[in-house]
Amino acid sequence: MCLVFDAGNKFVWSGHKDGKIRAWKIQQNLEGNSFKEFFSWVAHRGPVLSMVMSSYGDLWSGAEGGVIKVWPWESVEKSLDLTPDERHTSALSLDRSYIDLRTQVTVNGVCSISNTDVKYLLSDNCRAKVWSAGSQSFSLWDARTRDLLKVFNIDGQVENRVDLSSLQDTSIEEDMKVKFVSGSKKEKPQGSFSFFQRSRNALMGAADAVRRVAKGALDEHRKTEAILLTIDGMVWTGCANGFLVQWDGNGNRIQDFQHHSASVQCFCTLGSRIWVGYVSGTVQVLDLQGNLLGEWVAHCSPILKMAVGHGYVFTLANHGGIRGWSVTSPSSFDKILRSELASKETLYKKLENLKILAGTWNVGQERASHESLLAWLGPAASEVGIVVVGLQEVEMGAGFLAMSAAKETVGLEGSSIGQWWMDNIGRILDEGTTFERGGSRQLAGLLIVVWVRKCLMPHIGDIEAAAVPCGFGRAIGNKGAVGLRMRVYGRAMCFVNCHLAAHLEAVTRRNADFDHIYRTMVFNRPSNLLNAAAAGVSSVGQMLRVTNASGINSEEGKPELSEADMVVFLGDFNYRLHGISYDEARDFISQRCFDWLREKDQLRAEMKAGKVFQGMREGVIRFPPTYKFEKNQAGLAGYDSGEKKRIPAWCDRIIYRDSRTLFAPVSECNLECPVVSSILHYDACMDATDSDHKPVRCIFSVDIAQTDDSIQRQEFGKVIESNQKIKSLLGELCKIPETIVSTNNIILQNKDTSLLRITNKSGKDEATFEIICEGQSTIKEDGENSDHCTRGSFGFPRWLEVTPASGVIKPGHIAEISVHHEEFHTLEEFVDGVAQSWLCEDTRDKEVVLLVIIRGSCSTKTGSHSICVHNSSSSLRVNSKRNDSDKNQANVLHRSASPISGSSNVAEDLRNLHMPS
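Above: the chain sequence. Below: its structure as tokens.
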């Protein structure tokens, strides 16, 4: 469920669904690195949802129900030092050594923190704090004392769950002391609270819980999905509605941004840059102020995780794909690189061709005969790779429409009649042998289904569905659209089945229906069969349905349909012939004068005026109007001759757009114009008599340009190696700014504070710094140092506070870091979260080595400087081996500045932590 890497001790801690935490040791041997389980123990009753190692080396873990446990470094260290024969005792020892933070902040049955699952834990090493987060609340803790500092919600409002005004008498203070300091399990003095006080607190807790549940239902779209600490000490959270929220280290909400409408899934950071991964597959790059530097579509499916290493940002998608992107992009050399690669396009461009059959039929609540289906789809499907079928009026009626709307609200769809149509068309296409059903979507009477030829399946993926109701207040599916989006040879194709407003005079309403569908269609549901690997994202997709109901990118105003490489609209658009009588229309049809009839076509006129289907085109209509016919009557004599005598019309249409612009229809297929299509056949099946509409079909020949990734990578490498300007720019970006520190030795006594100054000598480049504890030792009686010891994850000793431990230094500026000695008490052992001995002061002198790691704002290369910090436990006890000048320099910084050296071993280890294996 979660992983923590202990860089200082080369351990990996893994939290598991069975509640166990496992320790894995990385060891070097002659055959390379080995990675074996060291020991494990049961940490929680349920899954371990989150883990983090604090700046003092403690291991924190979060679980369901708001449970947070801390395993002190002292206890963990004992287990790490055990011999192989003794490790069987480590599980018992660690299992009993935890501190239960939830128990510590519970008073009279009312807990100060939320009981929602602890999904995220974050160590603020800059200020020695720990953040714990659920979906809609946060708790802020002191990493050194493990005290609760603050509880607040997603709006930044402080939540006080315990009424402390009634806890003023001495006996209650003693009760608190027993609970928080000694951790004893003795009974609390029951006389401390009156019956009414206890009842009041219980009612407050119950009311608070009810309030949170009600508010949580409203704030579901704002729930936290990711959390990140940046080098400047700010904390960023990403929300399900795409919002990015910036917090300071004290839990104050600073500002928020929304650069994308989809749900945030993950973060990562390096230097002064932040990368954000979204459920839409988009990656964005921000600076530390939240300004958008760049964005691109990294994957066709949700991005689950991101990590920085070895000069790249790596993204992991829901379908298992991993890609790497340069940490320097966007930058000035991108344009040069893009131009160089474009000139070599012929080397790595591949062209693919396939045929797509699109068919539409308003079936009028009837079931077609096998002969009609065969005549409509059979011969045409034999030569295509993809078949897309859109049906209208599969099933209607007020009861069915109401039931369908109710099912949609809980994420259900489909009907038995819809299934009948899919099964019977599948038989015509030899489903299971020749074709595979790729996906489907039904909204009331609307149904769209896609079949893919088996040999083409490896090149098809990420099939997603969507639905937009347009009837009865934009809520009922008697009118509207259903759509499928899929990747074909890496290119996005969308197929949309529409049923627009009826009647001759409703042209404006039809235009409005199309506009509503185009703007608001959001593809968010993983489909079946071909996209089985995406089943795990269904909950995210459902959330996206809520959070992005408009379907419009709030920043750019781009509908999802506009970003596809090819879009095909098919269906009963209901546009009629205007300015012509029934008899005139019948005469022209009998004479097959379709050119003159097209001049009377409402859809043609509206498209020409730019009012609907903007930027799209249609094949030449050479078939009779497909509406309206008497059922079961063959031939053109079957047009409606009843009382209403509806004028025949081309209601059933197929319209499309590819990568070409409307004004450049002959564009060559290339990587800049990757999908170019032409129409091979566009006709109606006049032999089908099962409905009052005739089915229509269209066969597209589609050329698709794709990249041969292996060849492109080779050419990419050649450009990087040969282009001197790119090499120069990359060198500038990776350069470490010239930086100096004010001292290499600090001596502290009781509660002393010294200032460490880091100066950025560069005149134009920002520098970032991070301070870790490389190791510590204890001064023995004879003045010798004990063995070198590294706390977990390069953690600080508890007697030392370094603030801030990371930050950004502007060109020519100086960062001042406070190095403070704090009273420190050792805590020998915990059993079931309860201290087994009183706190005692450690009076031995100690030394630590602080490592200042410097890098550029966008560089993985590091420089470092070591600083020795000596803690003299008493101002009267100074080691005899120290000379008088050392004594006089206690609490005083050396004035000689020391330049940052090249990467030390530890700094190099840190850089290599994120390198791909």
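The chain has 20 helices and 52 strands.
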